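Box 3.1. Reading complex inputs
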Amino acid sequence: MTKYWRSLDELNDPVAFRKNEVRLEVDANRAVMKKASSSSRRDFLKTLGFSVATAAVVASCKRPVDKAIPYLIKPEEVTPGVANYYASSYFSGNEYCSVLVKVRDGRPIKIEGNDQSTISQRGTSARVQASVLDLYDDARFKTPLKRGEATSWDEIDSYVTQKLNQLKQDNKKVVLLSSTIISPTTRKVIGEFQQKFPNVEWVQYDAVSASGILKANELSFGKAFVPDYRFDKAKVVVSFGADFLSTWLSSVEYTRGYSNGRKVMQAGDEMNRHYQFESGMSITGSNADVRIPIKPSQEKTILTALYYQILQANGEMTIAAPVSPVDLKDLVEDLIENKGKSLVISGSNDVHTQLIVNAINQQLGSYGTTILTDVALNTHQGLDSDFEKVVVGLKDKSIAGILCWGVNPVYNYPNGKELNDLIGGAELSVSFSDRKDETTAACHWVCPEPHYLESWNDAEPKTGHYSLTQPTISKLFDSRQAQESLMKWAGVEAPNYYEYLKNNWSENLSKLQTKYADGRLFWNEYLQKGVFDPGKESSTLTYTDNGLANALNLKQAESSDWEIVLYQSTALKDGSAGNNPWLQELPDPVAKISWDNFASVPVKWAEENGLQNESVITVNGMELPVFIQPGQAAGTISVALGYGREVSGKVGDGVGKNMYPFTSIENGTQKFWLSGALVNVTDKTYELALSQTHHLMEGRPIVRETNFNEWQLDPKSGNEFHFEHVDDDITLYPKPEFKGHHWGMAVDLSSCIGCSNCSIACQAENNIQVIGKEQVRNRRIMHWIRIDRYFSNDAENPEVYHQPVMCQHCDNAPCENVCPVSATPHSDEGLNQMAYNRCVGTKYCINNCPYKVRRFNWFKYVGNDEFDYASNSDLGRMVLNPDVTVRSRGVVEKCTFCVQRIQEKKTEARVAGRLIEDGEIQPACVQSCPSGALVFGDLNNPDSKISKFFENERNYHLLEELHTLPSVGYLTKVRNKKA
Amino acid sequence: MYNSEVRGRLINGDKKFGQISQEILAPIHRKTAPLWWYFAMLVSLSMFGFGLYAKYITVSTGIGTWGVNNSVAWGWAIINFVWWIGIGHAGTAFSIFLLILRQKWRTAINRAAEAMTVVAVFCASLFPLLHMGRPWLFFFIFPYPNTRGPLWVNFNSPLFWDFVAISAYLLISASFWYFGMVPDFATIRDTAKSKIKKAVYGFFSFGWTGSSKEWLRYEALSFVLGGIAAVLVVSVHSIVSTDFAVAVKPGWHTTIFPPYFVVGAIFSGFAMVLTLVITMRGLYKMNDFITDSHVDAICRILIFISLIMGTAYLTEIFLAWYSANDYEQYLFFHTRIFGEYAPQFWAMFIANAVVPQLFWFKAVRRRMWIVFTISIIINIGMWFERFNIVVTSLSRDYLPSAWASYSPTWVEIAFFTGTLGMFITGVLLFFRFVPMIAISELKSVAKFDKPNNGQLKPSEHE
Amino acid sequence: MSKMKYILGVFEDEATLVDAFEKIKAKGILPLEVYTPYPIHEILEGMGKKTRITHAAFFYGLFAAVGILGFLTYAAAIDWPLKYGGKPFNAFPSFIVVTIVATILSITLLTLFTFSARAKIFPGKKPEIFHDRATDDKFVIVLDKESLGQNAETIRSIIKEHGVVE
C-alpha cells in the first residue's frame, strides 16, 4: 500500500510526527477547555471547532475517527448538522467586504454576502468567496519561526523586545511596514506601540496603491483621501482605464451601484450610459456601452482635450481645445446634458492625470452628487513615495529594523530582488505573515498571525461605516494576532486583543450611537449584525484647482512604439492569494484562460505576424504566451500582475510570470505601464489552459440583445424569436405539470458583468474539485456554472457578451431519457436530479445535453497525488461542505440548483409550520451575486420575483427551439448606445 | 431436386463425399499447424496483450487517460464498437439473407462468416463495457430485482435497448453457428485418428449420428432460427443506430439512421468476409470449394450496397440543407464537408461510395489482390464513417462556447489494436480447430449438376 | 447391442439410397432408421415422422412477448414510476424495441432446449454408431431382422442392387 506523507518529518519519523500533531491538538483543546469553564457560546464553539472538524474531516476521507469530543451537554445554538452563520469582515489586498461565515460543525466552509452592509450590500467577489480556502492552506505557518526553524513565542518575544529597546536606546529607526490598515482599534494599538517605541515609524504600503488619487486630492482638497464614488447616482459613467467592476478600489460596491443604474424591467426604468477608454479588454470595458481603445500614453491628452471641450461647452473659455486622438463630441454632449449626474474616473496612478479628472468632475458638478468628499474610502492609504523613503532608509542603514505586516514588497516592488537582501540585512526583520511569501522568506523572525476567520478585528472601510471581524474556528495553528504581538512587545503582560477590541467598542464607538446605553449590549448587537453605520462625522471639502495648470501644461510624450499595460487580474488581483487553487483555476472572465498570465495582443498585429494563441513573444526579453485579444488597442500589449509567485506554496509557485518588475516609480507614484518596450516574435509555443476556444455565436440566437431606446419603444425588441417560438409551440406529449413547487432561475444578461463570483461561490458550496492546468486544457473543467463569453462585430473593438450557463433543469431534459440506469431522473419540483451512486458513467447524458453543462469525473480528484491541490490533505479537505457528496471517479455531476439549500429551507418552513417565502431560498450563485443578475424562486407562485421575470418581455430560454423547456430564463442584454 | 441454373456446380472438381470431408478437415487432422500459423498467432497474441495493458490503465487510472472531454464524451471506444458490430453483421446476414434468397452458393462461406460474427461481436462488446466511468458497476444495467425499491432501469434509454440487442445478438449468433457445426463435429469424431480428437470432438458433437430423426428436427430448428435471426439482423443495427438517432444532436437526430446503419453494417461485414475468404483460399488451397464465382458474387453485392451508401450520404447532406436547420447546416458544410474534419469525411465518402464502383469491371473482380485491397479499403472507410458520426456531431453542436476538438491518446489506440489482435487470434483458432466450411451442407449441394449434367454451362472463369 | 439383430444397407450416394428406400417401403416395411451425412428430404418424409418444434417456437414467442411487455409496463409505470424527460410513465413506444429483441432471444433459447431435449442432442451424449462412415460419406439404412421375417431375402437383394449389406 502506498505510504502518503504530508511533510518530510513525517516521512523520516512518522511516529514522532504523529505524536507531535496529537500533542498540538490536545494542547489546543486543553487551552480552550480551560477558558470554556466560563463556557460562553463562542468558547464552546471554539472547543468543538477543531476537534469536530478533525473528526468530520477524518471521517470524510474514510479513515477511522481517532479523536472526537462527544457532546456531554448540547451547547446552546449548536446543533450538529445545522449550519450557523456569523457576521464578519473580509479585508485583504485592499479589498473590503462584509460577509457572513457559514460554520458547519465548527468549520467555516462558505462565505456569504452580508445584506446588512451598506457597502458590499450582500455582494462578494470571487476573491472573497475563495478566501475560506486560504484558511485551510498547507502553506500556512504552523509555528513561529526563527530563520526558518520552528521556535517558541517566548523566545521571539524576549528577543524582539530586547532588540527593540536596544534600537530605541541607539535611537535607530524601525519601520512597521503594513498594508493599508482600516481597523481603528488596530491603529490605536499601533499608536500605543509607537508611544512605547518612538523610533518606530509606521508606513502603509499597497501592492497596487491609489497614490495618484490620494496626492491629487491632497492638492485639490487639502486632504489625501479617496472620495466616495456613487455609481448608483451616475447617469453617465466615464472611466479611463479604471476596472471598477472588478479590481478598482471598492469594486463590489461599485458593481452593485452600477448595475442598479442599468436594470430595465418595466416601462419608465432609466439606464446609465457607460463610456470606457482603455487599452486591454477589462471586465468593465466588456460591459461598456461605448468602448474606445486607447494607448495609455494618450490618456492624459484625451483628458486634457475633454477638459477644455467641457470648459468651452460651459462657455468658460474661448481658445480652441487641443486636438484629441479620438472624437469626444458625443461624450461631451452627454456629460453636459447630465451635469451633476455624471461621473468621470481614471484608473491611472499619475497625479497630474487625476488632477485633470478632478477638474473635469468639478466642471460637471459631480462633487456632492456622484462623488462625496465628506466620506472617505479608507481601503487605499499607502503612498508609494513613503515606501520609497523606506527603501532609501534601508539602503543607507538609517533604518535598522523592519516589521512586515501583510505586505510582500520583495514580490511586488519593482526592484524586489534588491529589497530581499536589504530586509535580510536589517538588524531586526520580523514578518507577521500567516503563510509563506517572498518577503517572509527574507525575514529572520516570523510571528504568524491567524487567518481572518480565526481572529478578532474591526474595520472602518469608509468614514462612519464600521464593521467587526470575529473568529469562527479556534486557531488551527500556533499563531498570534499581530496586534497582540505589538501589545506584548509594548510591554502588556498578557495581551488579549479580543478584550481590547471589545472595550474600545463599548467605550469609544458606542458613543457614536444612542440606541444602547450599555456598551455590552451595543457590542453584542453589532457583533451579531457585523456592521455599524453611525453615519458621517467629517464635513464636505471644497475644491481648489491647485496644481491643475501645471498638470495641463505637462504634455505627455506620445510614443509610437509598444506600450505594455499591467493590470490586476480578476482572479488573483495583486497576487497575494497566489496559492489558492480555486482562484488559479478560475478562467479569466475575458480571455477564458486559467493557470497563467499571458500577453493580450491586438488582432491586427497578430495576423500580420502570423501569431496564434499560444505562440510565444518576448517583451523586453521576457517570454510570454500570446492570447489574441479582440479589442486590444493597437500598439499595446496587456499582461496581468499577480502571477509568477516564487514562494507561495505548492499550488502557486511558478505559475505565470511576475510582471511587477516592469512597473516603475515616476514622480512619487508607481506607474503600471511602460512605453518603448522591445517586442519580438519567437517560433516557440506555450500551452495555455483555455476553457473556451470558439468566440463567435455563429449567428445563433444564444445571447439576444437590444438597445435601450429600442427597448423603450418595444420591450420585446431583440427577443422576437422567443415570441415566434411561443406562437408555434406544439408538443407531442403534454407539458409536464408540477404540483407544489417548480423551481426556476432567471439571469438578467444586462446586469451580469461576468465577474465569475458565482463560479467560485458554487465551487465552495458544492465541493467542486480543482483539476489543474493540463486537465483544464483538455476541456474537462469542473465548474458547475460557467460563464460563456462571446465577441461580435468588429474584431478591433468588439461587443462582448457574458452569459452564465448552469444546468437548465429542462422539464423535457434530453439527458434524462438516455441514461440507461436511471441515474438522472426528474423531481416533482422540476429539478433535474443526479444520483451519483447510481451513475455508471456512460456519458451519454453529457453528449445529449445541448447546453453541455454536465461534468465528468475523469479521474479520482480527491486524495490523489496526481491532483495535489486543495483536496489532497486532511487540512485542505476541511473546507468540504458535508451537505454535498464528494463525487467519486467515473460519475457525472452538474448544477443541482443547490438542492441541499432548498431542502434546508423547506425543512425550516415545515418545522415552523409556514410557507416558504419568496427569495428565502438562495443557491450559492444567487446569494452573493454583486450585480443581482441572478434570481431564484418558485415558478408556481405567481407573485414570486422569478414569475415576474419569466413574464417579462425580455425573457427567453436558451435554445428554446429544441423544446427542452428549461427552468432557466435569460433576459435580453440591453446596451445604451447613443441613438 | 436442387437446381442452380445461374451458376454451374458450386464446387470444382468432381469430388467424392469422403474426399470433401478429407480436404476440408485436413487442417484439423494434421498433427501440427503450418509455421505461418504459429507466427501469426504470436503477432496477434502480442497485439492482444498490448490491448490488455491499455485496458488495465483504463480501469485502474480512469478514462481520463483517453482523449475524450466534457464536450466530446465519446471517442474511439464508441467508434470501434459500432465498427465491430457492423462487421459482426456479415455472418448472420450472409446465412439468413442468402438462405431466404435460396442462394445455395452461400454454403461454402457462411461458416466462416458466422465465425467472424461471433468473434467480432465479442470484440465489440468490450468497448461499451470499458468506456464506462465505473465498469465494475455494469450490472446496474440489468433490470434485476433489488432492495432499492426495487429500482429498475430506464427502458427509454437507447443504451439499454442496445445492451439487450447486443447480448441477444451475441447469444443467438453463437448458438446458430454452433448448432450448424454439430454434424461436422460428428464427422470429425468419426474420421479422426487420434483418441483425444475423437474424445474432444465426440463431446462437442453432442452425440450426433445423422439419423433421420435428428435431421428432421435439425431442419426444423434451423428453419426457426433462420427466420428469427433474419429479424435480428435488421433490428440489432437499427437499435445501435438509435444510440445516435434518439439524441438531440445535429447530425445524430435523423430518421435515416436505422436503414443507413443496417446497410452500412452489411457493407462492412461483406467486405470483411471477402478479406477473410480470400485469405482462406490463399492459405488453405480451398479454391475448389470457395470458387472465384463466390468472390465474384460478393463483389457484385458490394457494388450494389456501395451505391446505397453513396445515396445515404447524399441524402443526409441534402436534408441538412433542405431542413434549413442552422445547426445541421453548420455541422455538414462547415465541419464535415469543408472544415476541421473534412479529411475524415472525404476518406469515408471515397472509400465507401467511390472505390467499390471498380467492381463493375470483371478484370477487377478477377484479380484477387485487387479485390483484397478494396475490401480492406472499405473496412477503413466504414471506420471513418463511424468517426464522422460520433466525433464531429459532438465537437460542433449547439453552443459554440462548448465546442471542443478530440484526438485519441495512445491508450485508446492500444485498446483498438488489442481487439484487432483478439479478432485475428479468434480467426486463427477457427482455422485450426473448426471445419471452415459447413461440410454437411456442402455435401448436400455437392452434386447439383447430377440431374442435368449435359446442359451444364461451364463455370465462368477457370 | 449386437449388430446381429440388424441388417445394414450401406449406399454410396443419395440417389441409390432413395431408390432402395422407396422399394423397401413398397414392400410395406419401414426401416428402423436411416443415417445420412446430410438431410435428404425423401427420407425425412418417407420415415413418416413429424416434428412440432416450429409450433412450439411460435407459442414461446407469443408468451415471451406478452410477458416482457407486461414486465416493462409494470416496472416503469406501476412498481416505481420515475419521470424521464417529460415522458409519461407508460412510454409504450420505448418498450416496443426491447420487447421485440428480448422475445427473439427467448424464442431462440427455448427452441434450442426443446430441440436438444426431443432429438436427444446434448453435451456428452454417447452416440449409438451403426456405421462410422454414416457421418462422412456413406448412406445407411438400418433394418430390424425380426420385423423383416420372410422377406429378408428380397430386402437384401434390393439393397444389393446399389449398395452393400453388412
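In summary: The CA atoms of residues 241 and 609 of chain A lie 27 Å apart.
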